[in-house]
Amino acid sequence: MNRINYFAFLVGLLGFFMSASALAQNFSVVETLDNGRNPWSMSLFSLASIEPEKADEGGRLSTYNYLSFNRRLSSHTRFAVRTPFIYNSYGYDRFNAGQVQDQELFLQDVFFSYTDYNIALLPGDIEVFWEGRVYIPTSQHSQDTKMVTRLRNDLIFSKLLTHRVQLSYINKFNYYHQSRTAYRNTFIGDEGDEITVTSLTKRMEVDHWLELWYALNPETGIGFKVGGEDTWWNRSEIENKEKAPEHLLKVGPSFRFSLTNSMNFIFSVDSKVAHISDLGRLNPEHINVALLSFIRF
Amino acid sequence: MMRSVTLLSLTMFALAVATGCSTKPKRPVLQHPQAVTVMTYNVENLFDTEDDPQIEDETYLPQERKSHPLIMAKCMELRQDWWKKECLEKDWNQKFLRRKMQRLADVILQVNQGRGPDVVVLPEVENQKVLDQLRVRFLQKANYKPAILVEGPDSRGIDVGILTRLPLVGAPTLHVVQFTEDADLGVKKEDIHPTRGILEATLKLPDGQLLTVLGIHFPSQGSPTGFRQQAIARLKEVKDKLPKDRMVIVGGDFNITISEDLSHKLYSSELSQEFGVSHLIGCSQCRGTHYYHRKRSWSFLDALLFSKDLLPKGSGPWKVEPSSIFVANDSLYQRNRWGSPARFGDGRRSTGVSDHWPLVATIVPRSPSVLMSKSKEKSNESN
Prior knowledge:
The complex is a heterodimer.
Chain A: H1 3-17, E1 40-50, E2 61-72, E3 77-88, E4 104-107, E5 111-122, E6 126-135, H2 140-144, E7 147-160, E8 165-178, E9 182-188, E10 194-200, E11 202-217, E12 220-233, E13 246-260, E14 263-273, E15 287-296
Chain B: H1 2-22, E1 36-40, H2 69-76, H3 81-89, H4 94-108, E2 119-125, H5 128-138, E3 148-149, E4 159-164, E5 168-175, E6 198-204, E7 210-217, H6 225-240, E8 247-253, H7 258-264, H8 266-271, E9 275-277, H9 278-281, E10 290-292, E11 297-299, E12 302-307, E13 318-320, E14 326-327, E15 359-365, H10 368-382
Parallel strand pairs in B: 1-2, 7-8
Antiparallel strand pairs in B: 1-15, 2-4, 3-4, 5-6, 6-7, 8-12, 9-12, 10-11, 13-15, 14-15
């Protein structure tokens, strides 16, 4: 399925699920709480990304999506069960030695989420959003690595600087509770042959950034982010293997817009590099273009 | 490709900033040494955290008190489901009350270089005690005298209060608004409930002249137009009993929507016969003081009315400056993301204070030469 067909598929899926939508709360960089009469709701999240240097040359469209079944518990809290799935189109990507890959659709780890949209209001009118997630190892990768569970903690601190300008600090922390420190990892090598190596399992990840948003009007805004992604791996005594933590810096602009009260989108371009000196070079292999979609039913 | 995307992003950002800077409306600036600023501001349910058995204030109590069977029973008696739910779930404790008052103060003090208006009419206040808490703890910069409020018979328990720096002359009076059954106006006996009275307070202006302020809060749009028509008639009665040369300003929440005014001409005809209406004599760039989301419409639910002698063509010793009339909405707490009034709600968000925006106007002494020529005109006419 090529990129055009993917979007057609997504629109079709939305049309199938969409019914009368309740009014949404304020526009935000995250999903917002639906305070309609019905405490039960569904929503769809999609993160679609592409490597820009291959966009016009058969580059692969990769999407991470989940369908969320939500129960509002109070005016500011919600519990949800989410079933994520990945769809990747046919094409090239940076992984697997740049070989052409078939399209694929597969389940990721199902997770439970508890969200408090206003867990605190700090001095200086700083809003605090919190979400906790518990992942179940339903994906093939989690089963291959024998992961027990993953715990995720999201915090967002936001402050309105003027009527139009908002500053946010976002922190997403993942902890992997693994049953083993290493696993057998199979992939396609440069020659097109199948290679199996021993890889280390992840221990933790932190994705965090500072973002400034400017509201052009109630439906659209532009932003700019600066942050980092850090990953730590387990050390395997048995395999005598360890891997240095990876620290990436990222910067880039974003554009947010909403089509209706129930459909919000964020388009972003991120440059992720290991060295600060590479930040301004805008090398294509460091760039990711992504579209985040939040749709409430 | 990436350089293009970056350039486009930066260009959009620059355009956005330029657009944002240029669309901010200019606030009228009136420089006069004796100017008196008047504001009307519906503060949306300013209740204390204590239970008053005489009124329906159970919604505004701390969560830990709501498990009491008597309180729960009173919540269950409320007429509408959403109100029942709010009554049972809302946590109204000292923390949220302080936050509400701090935000109200931020709104009130945004005028007059941070000193607030000289007179502010405040509908939807539970009692004098909570209004004085606001005055003493959060409005010190305004230096207001003790709050003026006379409790009325409204079953919701809300009243109109006044805060002012001007001296009070005599005691304030509450004029009860009594509705009478009238089939033509759609006022049915079973719909008649006690409501907010008209608060009368006479103040002394800096030059010794007297100004009577009438604070009102008419029945909501939940009641037929006939109720507001009868309330207007009562307002006129109260005003007519005042001395003929008394300058009068009426402030408050009239609950008259734009569509109701178009069909029944409550502002444009009934009230305009005896008063100058703030948004009809000025504030031409203003959209309104309240936004009704369901109908996507702005209305001037709140207004300031000026007796005829206060109007520019009037003969009173003071006059209102039409160019000074504006809707004050610069506080960060006041706007939601759609740019309309942000309710306080559960008080957990960084914005939200009231579902109304205040309306402000300034009156100034009429110049002596103008006063003299008007006085000559009057004596010529009588000759």
